[in-house]
Input
Amino acid sequence: MPPALPLVYLDEHLLLVSKPAGLLAVPGRGEDKQDCLSTRLQAQVPGALVVHRLDMATSGLMLMARSAAVQRALSLAFEQGRIHKLYEAVVHGHLSADGECHEIDLPVGADWPRRPRQQVDHTHGKPSRTRWRWLAHEGPHSRVQLEPLTGRTHQLRVHMQAMGHAIVGDALYAADGGDSAPRLLLHARELSLAHPVSAQALCFSDPTPF
Output
C-alpha cells in the first residue's frame, strides 16, 4: 500500500495536497504508470477530481475538486488567471541579483521529434509568460522565484533553459541531463485563490524541500 499523501487543506468542496517529486499526477500509459497522485488521493478522499497537473519531476501544491461543479469552476479560474501560483527553483549559473521582478515572454510549443520535450517556437508556439525574481546565489547556482502567468506544458523549464539557466536536475532541458542533482529542483510553493463556493480568499504554502 503506497503511503498516504500529505493534505494541506480539506473541506467539502476542494482540497490541496503536497505532491512528492517523482510521482505522476495522473495515470500514464502502461501498467507501470498507474501509480499516481490522483489514484492515491481517491483512496484517501473518494471522489477527488483533478483540476490541474504538475510534471512528474516537480513537487508541491496541487489543487483538487470534490465535485464536478467545483472542478469546472476551478478549471475556469485557472484559465482566466484567477488562481495564482509561485514556484521556487534552483537554476544553473548566476542570475541578476537586483531582487526585481523580470518577465520572460516566449511562445512555447511541442518539440514533436523529441516528445515529451517542449521548445520555444515563434511559428507555432502558444503565447507563454513567466515572471521571475532572484532570491540567492548558491555556489554556481541561483535560487529563484518563478510565477507562471500562462500554463503551458513545461513552461518554466523551457523558459529558464531559453535564458541559459536551466533548472538544476532537469533531465530533459539541462545540458548535463540532470546529473547535477538527484531530482528536478522545482517546487510549487504557494497557491492562492478565491474559494469557488464561499469566495473567501485562500492562500496556501508548502515549504520548499531543497
